[in-house]
Amino acid sequence: MQPSGYTSANTSALSPSLDATFGALADPTRRAILERLLEGEASVTELAAPFSLTQPAVSKHLKVLEAAGLISVGKDRQRRPRKLEPEPLREAGSWLQRLRDVWEADYQRLDQLLARLQDGNDS
Q1: Where are the domains of the chain?
Q2: Cβ(71)–Cβ(83) under 8 Å?
Q3: Are 37 and 84 in contact (CB under 8 A)?
Q4: Helix (H) or strand (E) holding 58
Q5: What is the CATH number of domain 9-122?
Q6: What's the maximum distance between 2 C-alpha atoms anywhere in the chain?
Q7: How confident is the model over 63-69, as a mean pLDDT?
Q8: DSSP label at 123?
Q9: Which residues, in sequence order, are bridge partners of residue 82?
């Protein structure tokens, strides 16, 4: 959902995928699953092992991650390993970087102001 008055070519193109990415990342279990997948592919059983959740509960988390495009399902004989897909995370990182750039510019202006104020007090 795009708030009225805040539309731009950049945000409207990425909004659905960003919403799905941040929605998926909102849950600590899903973030932990992604952390595990940084090490490489894993089956549902392997991904469920460290959690005190049922395998169906972990499968629900995996479906959310898959719907967001954060993971994909492979096929290796009888196994269906999950694999991390980095592109949605890159898009989220780019979006966050734009915010960081704004904050950094604000901090630089604040540093300049403080330096001017300090110079005025030193004389």
Answers
A1: 9-122
A2: yes
A3: yes
A4: helix 55-67
A5: 1.10.10.10
A6: 78
A7: 96
A8: -
A9: 42, 73
